[in-house]
């Protein structure tokens, strides 16, 4: 039967005929007209005002009795932000106003600053006191996307909806530029001197850099402010404020910190810790202590961090991690540079390891609940994630090998320094032309089996990951307590120097507690806490080599991720605990003779090396490096009695 089904009369060529009204005017649309007379009116219909974040307080009939009206609360919030942004040398803080300066709404801005407008202009008043600082406060990912795309060069939406950005000249952390204020209180508490990551600076220099950052931020049209939380353990949660100049940084921290609910935000009050990220602006090399254009400065007394001269976003998350490494042990809580997940039966595993060893990859496991990929606390209540998001490496990412991370790269995710097709916007994950350290930062709930809230019971397994590019460490070893401590304090990994042309030799790195760059106290303090907790809760230690097999870098190959996953599965299930073990030479490690799903011959690395002599030489070389590194710890006592210390010293390689 002919006809198009919607009752329109058909014209000769099969198209519906256009109806002509009696007045001769032609109407080609049948839908109702919009309820607007002008374009401006039409646009005003598009956006609905967000519900106020303070629906109950101060409103009649609310059960809660409240001290403040909504107006007063808003005023206090602006005042708190103005206080954060205040110069310490001028009388008045900036006049803070919420909203994008590009949008002129015609509304009278709610202004807040230290004193009132009636300051008599004197020569001590600078131009900065005449201008407003526009604050973009806890924007949503969609708003931050728009800001980034409009105003930040190098921002693009990829085909899967992620926000691709560039971090500028710095595409990784700058540990040599991380400084900590040394004063009376930190003098005795912190780890200083040889091996310590804490490069000292004085309070005055900190204030010089702080002033530089604050002036820079106030000179901009607008700044981003994030008020968020750290630590999923409600008893030990920390309120953090991040002041930054880029939408990219605001979105990154939105993803990486714990996101407050509207109610929590309403009661946020004064932050416990504030970051001033002025990363586009360099530090001044005429300033005392400055050795480059970059400085990341921590002042524990003021509870502030200043970032100058680097836009690498990881600096913020790892900077806050350092702060937690100070604050948590003060409360007898152990802070851990580890990933963490939990099985269906509630068995928790920790994954320690330096950058690139597999914390993120192996804690993101489709068969287990993800608690977190990088930073945790272990208290008497169990474990808790410090963060609200994950920061995965993207180099050579494949959908097949890491499906959950692949699928998390969607709207809301920040993709740093990746390369994509200019037309399709498909990301080329194998491309290293900007950097090898390409990254994705996404909220933890983008992983389907994330455990929210991100807390769990006491760990059953403590897995130490080493990416051994020498290829001599076994794929898996079971450790006794002394060995666990020995390897935890050593914090070994060896990566290939990839960036330097022609370098074939793997570079051994020893980083105490698998995170020397972030710890604030002496490593033995954390080690002693770990030993106590593992003993108390009966956790088993494991050493897993996620690096080379069949020879060193250049000759052998990286361990297949599928095999490492099988090994990890066997640890989780408990089956590896019951395996048959044999002891290795030199390192004295207990290695299983069989692991389900893994070829048995690879379990003892000597079998995989065609050249046995080269194997032995390499093994001894690595043992020598371990011994040399541990020398600095031999004079330290670990824990209350010296028994553990002696056992730990004896748990190293013997040759
Ligand atoms: N056998 C393996 N085990 C773990 N990771 C592996 C393995 N082989 C290759 N990889 C790759 O190594 C990288 C590990 O990095 P990641 O998990 O981000 O480390 P971390 O979180 O500890 O910094 C990932 O890119 C992963 O794909
Ligand atoms: C963010 C970092 O952590 P990781 O490499 O351990 O994921 C980093 O080291 O810069
Ligand atoms: Ca936010
Ligand atoms: Mn990681």
From TrEMBL:
GO terms for cellular component: cytosol. Residues 97-107 have a biased composition (Basic and acidic residues). Residues 90-113 are annotated as: Disordered. GO terms for biological process: gluconeogenesis. Pfam families: PEPCK_ATP. Its main location: cytoplasm. Gene3D superfamilies: 3.90.228.20, Phosphoenolpyruvate Carboxykinase, domain 1, Phosphoenolpyruvate Carboxykinase, domain 2. Its EC number is 4.1.1.49. Belongs to the phosphoenolpyruvate carboxykinase (ATP) family. PANTHER family: PHOSPHOENOLPYRUVATE CARBOXYKINASE (ATP), PHOSPHOENOLPYRUVATE CARBOXYKINASE ATP. This is phosphoenolpyruvate carboxykinase (ATP).
